[in-house]
Amino acid sequence: MSGVTVRVPAKVNIQLAVGGARPDGFHDLANVFLAVSLYDEVTVRPAERLTITCEGAGAAKVPLDESNLAARAALLLAERHGIAPDVHIHIAKAIPVAGGMAGGSADGAGALLACDTLWGLGSSQAQLLELCAVLGSDVPFSLAGGAALGTGRGERLTPLPVGGDFHWVFAVADGGLSTPAVYGEFDRLHAGARVPAPRASEPLLDALGAGDAAALGAALVNDLQPAALSLRPSLAATLDAGLAGGALAALVSGSGPTTAFLAKSAEAAAEVAGALDASGTCLATHVATSPAPGATVL
Ligand SMILES: C[C@](O)(CO)[C@H](O)COP(=O)(O)OP(=O)(O)OC[C@H]1O[C@@H](n2ccc(N)nc2=O)[C@H](O)[C@@H]1O
Ligand SMILES: Nc1ncnc2c1ncn2[C@@H]1O[C@H](COP(=O)(O)OP(=O)(O)OP(=O)(O)O)[C@@H](O)[C@H]1O
Fold first, then answer.
1. 1 a known binding residue?
2. Is the pLDDT at 125 greater than 90, yes or no?
3. Is 138 a known active-site residue?
4. Which of 132, 160, 188 lies at the terminal end of a domain, its last residue?
5. pLDDT digits (tens, 9 = 90+) for 219-235
6. What does the alpha-carbon distance between residue 80 and residue 296 come to, in Å, rounded to a whole number?
7. Would you call 61 a catalytic residue per the annotation?
8. What is the pTM of this model?
9. Which domain CATH number covers 237?
10. Which residues, in sequence order, are CB contacts of 206 under 8 Å at separation 6+?
11. Per the database record, which ranges form the GHMP kinase C-terminal domain (predicted)?
């Protein structure tokens, strides 16, 4: 086999309920993930040693050493099977880097599935999900796709039914935000307060299951949004510009700084994207639909 390419979706957190900091430094979550049709592609080929290249938007900011999540995935899988991780990994990037849309996690999940296929290991989905959880809290969902509730630190997934397509616009911000820094700011903003245990919202799950965009828009919530806005106050203007452009609802995607806008139709999404582009409050926009399938061998 000469090479294997896997396509992996970005995510938006339609509910991100965050509990207090745990002794291990993570936070318990009720994390409702939705995969969206914005994809990275990860290609692996046999090589003399483990190497990585990356092309596409933000590629210059992606590490090309063993800290890359795709490299870590190849190393982990090879180690588990006692084989040499000698592959060249090429990442074609469309998911904003350090944007809160799980781009690195997507590449980790993609490399895992691509190497498993290239090496003919035949791992089950459950075995791959277990390795994904070692790589990072968001990585299992990048493999699974669709929609799911993530509990624990977000890695324990329960698939969720989705009753129809949803239309989104994503506004890419200038520069990234560090996920640990945003959780740290959440802790600072809640210092001394009792943070309730995170719970999935019933109205949100009902809206998702019914495919009801207006009800979903009313139920979107991200507990990390105040922290992301505190670190990047200019995001408020982007959120306002998308709402003024006709979005049903707007929120920061995960730890940000990408902002997400729910629209009532594909036409409305194009209008929201146009308004955001004209506003000068973001670097670029992407229109996408959900749910999107998880990591897929092409
Ligand atoms: C913000 C989200 O993207 C929402 O889906 C995720 O919670 C972040 O997931 P991720 O990037 O895969 O995060 P990981 O690589 O597992 O952890 C990076 C850092 O984020 C913080 N972190 C992450 C997940 C979590 N449940 N609690 C945390 O406090 C911790 O400081 C951790 O050291
Ligand atoms: N394959 C990869 N693609 C992008 N960044 C990577 C990758 N591997 C490691 N990184 C590192 O991870 C950091 C976070 O990048 P990533 O694009 O995953 O952020 P994110 O989308 O905000 O993540 P999440 O939504 O899961 O919190 C980057 O700044 C980069 O240093």
1. no
2. yes
3. yes
4. 160
5. 999 999 999 999 999 99
6. 22
7. no
8. 0.98
9. 3.30.70.890
10. 212, 215
11. 205-279
